[in-house]
Amino acid sequence: MKRVYVIDDLLLFNPNLSGNKEIYYYNELNKIRNHKWSPIVEFITADIDSILYITDKIMEVFGTFGPFVVILRDQTKSKILIAASVLFLAVNREKEKKWLSELEKRVRADVNCISKHKSEKIQGTSDPVYIKTTMCFGIQSGGAVAHSAGVISEMKKIYRKMEVYTTDFLPENLMDKSVTKISLTGFRDYYDEAKMYLNLSAYKTVKGRQGNKKPVFVYQRCSLYDYIGVKTAEKYKVPFVLEWNGSEIWVSKNWDNLRFKYRDIAEKIERLNLEKSDLIVCVSKELKESLIASGIPGNKILVNFNGVDVNKFNPSIKGERIREKCGLDNKIVVGFCGSFAKFHGAEVLAETFGNILKHHENYRNKVKMLMIGEGNTLDNVKRILKRKGVMDHAVCAGSVPADDVPEYLAACDILVAPHIPNEDGSEFFGSPTKLFEYMAMGKAISASKLNQIGEILHDDQNALLFTAGDVEEMEKSIVTLIEDDVLRTRLGKQACDDAKRFHTWEKHVDRIIIRLKEMNLLK
Questions:
Q1: From CA 1, how far away is CA 145, in angstroms rounded?
Q2: pLDDT given for residue 13 in this prediction
Q3: How far is the C-alpha of 51 from the C-alpha of 518, rounded, in Å?
Q4: Three-state DSSP class for 510?
Q5: pLDDT in tens, 375-394
Q6: pLDDT number for residue 256
Q7: How big is the CA angle at 132 (ends 131 and 136), to the nearest 5 degrees?
Q8: At 444, which helix (H) or strand (E)?
């Protein structure tokens, strides 16, 4: 019986569908001109209980392929939908539409109540609670995944029974009975409302599982509309540790180009998290300075750079399999790894690589570029490579499983971090996780001299640096490394030594625990 596969439009989500299958991506269904009738469609997603805009997606799948059934499937379970199921979804959407204003009122009341609540913090007796409900269901690689995995892994070495509550992907080695997967249980046809409702449903899950167990502290990665962590900490009257990677309101506006339906609520929730936190762990001094400027006391802010798992990323890893797979044998490989956000500067790297091969014709048989990952700017990167006439000299590997990333980095001789300044003129506040992974691999690095990157890397000591966004300087830096293998070895060794000495996740977590004890928030 004929079967086709439709993959949900989730960032960095690439399920393993082996064999000769008829595969479509949901966000490209509108390009299909000759609809192919199929009695069965499998809709592959990261979590079948958390499909955003589910009604429209399923209606379009039925309308496109006219199947008897649609099978929703994720890694662990499957669910069959028939034509009548579409009617149920449509009716449920209309029912929830009537509750949108009530949900808004409920969340506003909840936030106001938590804001007014004052309690003296008590030392808990159970292991901590870790919460990450960023609703990044499909993302299986990238900085956010690496950060969560690193922090959870190291905290569990200290607190073996730490409870983890998450909507998002975690590596297989961390998935044990202490991890509770949080799914959407309502308002899946909306975005803002789904995130707001998650506060109510996820808090109920956390409270139900924790029961009377009072954690020593609650740790949460801050995300848009999210106040589950602060509400949990207030309930148990324990310290609240907020992981702050920047204002999600600023990020959504400047990088994700999202429009807010409830901007004032989002701002109140973000402020609530900052003011109610006992310790804010931020990844750069620029973030600390911006928080202090907004009125947050500096003595409760810990600047804690991102880190790396040196057992996973290290020079002993071999890249021969990837070199053979990608046609990179006997080449000097210039590599880039990232989620192709605007600030990653991949477009500038593509321009630079084109210029390098134009100015050094002999490199066409000697040098190739390997770009690992996918994201918003990848399509434009490919257009630039084609315009420059160097597409045949570059390999765009797409998103790869997190466990495979070290092998891809090992296939490179030079790794580039071409980050660019923020377009609105504000200070670059990032702490690129990939930078520390580059260092731990012992590879020669060419990087932008941009804020924290220029603090961690030192020109001609553990990297070659160039002015951010400067194509000519970047070209000179990369060409220097192409020409000098001795320099590549020296810089790579020093970078690796620095990563192991200063930038492991173990040291990152140790700094958090030490600060909590210094503040008398932890015994």
A1: 38
A2: 81
A3: 43
A4: helix
A5: 889 999 999 999 999 999 99
A6: 61
A7: 160
A8: strand 444-448
Which pLDDT value is given to residue 521?
A: 95
The DSSP H or E segment spanning 107 is helix 100-116
Structure tokens at 45: 């997603």
Over pLDDT 90: what percentage of the chain?
80
Q: In what order do the strands lie in the sheet with 394-398?
A: 394-398, 367-372, 332-337, 414-417, 444-448, 464-466
The dihedral formed by the CA atoms of 160, 166, 172 and 178, expressed in degrees to the nearest 10: 30
- Residue 360 makes CB contacts below 8 A (sequence gap 6+) with 367, 479
Q: How far is residue 20 from each of residues 23, 40, 64, 384, measured CA to CA in Å?
A: 9, 16, 21, 31
User: What distance in Å separates the CA atoms of residue 479 and residue 61, rounded to the nearest whole number?
Assistant: 49
| Chain Cα centroid distance, residue 315 | 24
What's the mean pLDDT in 74-81?
93
- The full set of domains in the chain, from first to last, is 3-97 (no CATH), 119-303 (3.40.50.2000), 320-503 (3.40.50.2000)
C-alpha–C-alpha distance, residues 384 and 121, integer Å: 55
* Element containing residue 60 per DSSP (H, E): helix 54-65
Q: Which residues contact 296 (CB under 8 A, 6 or more apart)?
A: 274, 275, 280
Q: Is the dihedral of CA 148, 127, 508, 275 positive or negative?
A: positive
- Closest by CA to 411, choosing from 353, 300, 328, is 328
Enumerate residues 6+ apart whose C-beta is below 8 A from 321: 407
